[in-house]
Amino acid sequence: MKQMLWINGEKIETERYRPLTNPFNGEKIADVAEASQSDVVRAIDAAAGAARVMASMDAHKRADILRKVAELIQEEREECARLIAEESSKPLKAARAEVDRTIMTYTFASEEARRIQGETIPMDAAPGGEGRVAYTVKEPLGVISAITPFNFPMNLVAHKVGPAIAAGNSVVLKPASQTPLSAYKIAEYFQKAGLPAGALNVVTGSGKNVGDVLTSDDRIKKVTFTGSPAVGKHIRENAGLKRVTLELGSNSALIVDEGTDLQKVMPRIVTGAFSNQGQVCISIQRIFVHEAVAEEFTALFIEEAGKLKVGNPLDEDTDVAAMISAGDVERAKSWIQEAVGNGAELVLGGESDQQVLKPTVLLNAHPSDKISCEEVFAPVVHINTFSKFEDAITRVNESQFGLQAGVYTNDLQKAFKAARDLHVGGVMINEIPTFRVDHMPYGGVKMSGTGREGIKYAVEEMTELKLVSFKLD
Ligand code: NAP
Fold it and tell me: Terminus-to-terminus CA distance in the chain, angstroms?
């Protein structure tokens, strides 16, 4: 299969193509277009033309297009899930869940398109403002560039394209090089749903080559990026006065207090640690357990993690499959070895077979080990103990990241204390940090990024507030 670029409502040839392989078995899936910088400029030209069409499109029409996209994905749910599983090695069960969430995200976007509204401003509240009627409107920004990662290739595209179209913008989308096919598929659905040509363009190619044009062209009014902190920082530094939303990584933590029903919560905690091979921005990486229950917790955790079925992502019962690249497996293994060298105890996993790293559990890793303080983005967790609840909060906050944190406790005082003192974008009480539904505000503090997604919140960041004031005689 040959995957061309998608520009101005058409498949466009380019000079270079790159073979795309399945991370689990190394088989070739497609030859994917590598856009040149002039291809990217052409995509921005198309988006700039379509921006005018989109800005004058009625809200109900934008809502209908987005709803239709959700319906088209629903009709081809299984095909979409298989595409995600093949290109990203996400186990089929998880890929289906991602498709279902993608449908929800476009559904929310469709609903949000109908309720983008301003407010009236009581100008006479200030001396000198008398005799005026004023109101605000939210206008689309124009052309938005969206750059997305490999780990949720369909739903994270939806979190950018959905609100952008809902608000009447046009988009140039650059998906991750390892997961381009699901993004091109979405462009097909938008065309079938009646989106004007040029309102959504998809360009693939190396992050640097394509990304730099998408970050620097003056016609781009906003860059919305999800990916690693290093690339996010580069984009922020090069975006000039453009708006920038950065959804970056983390080393998410979970606190488990004494009194927690461990049997009940364990399957959920294990899912939060190893789902999609730990390649989730809010995957559980650091666990802090009250010392009174630490032994029982660890035994149950290892037992539950040991039940995970490791294998081919296309097998129905697989829980953990290949990581995205051989280099990432090696990186994770070297971090595990570093922690063990510094005194951590390896109690499960640690070994790999080709690109599959077995679910790995360490005890008592040092806070300065990479496995603690960097984002591991692999099926690796470590369990540490605490005696005072406040100390656990301090340990969670001792991180350069702050996306979400989870806390299991039956003590209301402690729950409120955690909600107040945890320095993260979202605190999940009696839930894992990995919890997300697609309309909630979502984003991080510190190195985890700036701005919020969750359709309504993303729409805010993709519109410009205009004030209109009428002076009356
Ligand atoms: P990545 O390497 O940063 O890549 C993300 C995207 O940026 C890809 O499309 C990549 O293209 C592109 N890119 C690379 N270099 C670029 C440059 N110089 N300019 C512009 N774009 C460039 O991240 P990843 O490995 O795909 O994804 C994993 C990261 O994403 C983790 O850190 C994870 O925590 C984070 N993440 C965050 C969230 C969130 O909502 N906060 C959600 C999911 C993932 P290529 O693929 O062509 O290199």
Answer: 68
